[in-house]
Fold this protein.
Amino acid sequence: MKIKNVLIITCILIFLVGLIGSLWLIFKSHSQKVQIIQNGEVLYIIELEKSGDETIEIKYQGSKNIIQIDNHKISVIDADCPDKTCVKMGELKSSAAPIVCLPNKLVIKFAETDDIDAEVK
């Protein structure tokens, strides 16, 4: 009976370690380069580790988004869009969940590689 319990506990631990490792690989940022894209056009490529604290104002058809880089982290701190989902998203933490402002066609995401071969619109 003891060998069966040890085997079950070992299988559960292996499963949990595999699950945690998989989630970590999916959600970790693979790059410290961030792209700010509006309407399919890359406006800025920022290396967070080398950047200082600053704010960037991006305008689109009379509306604007204010992006803040603070302590090597990037977030949208103000927007003219009605729902302000981009502000509520907080800091960009992983490549799996970019910051998006649909009304202003703005996307802030980690760059997957250093060289961009193509972009789909």
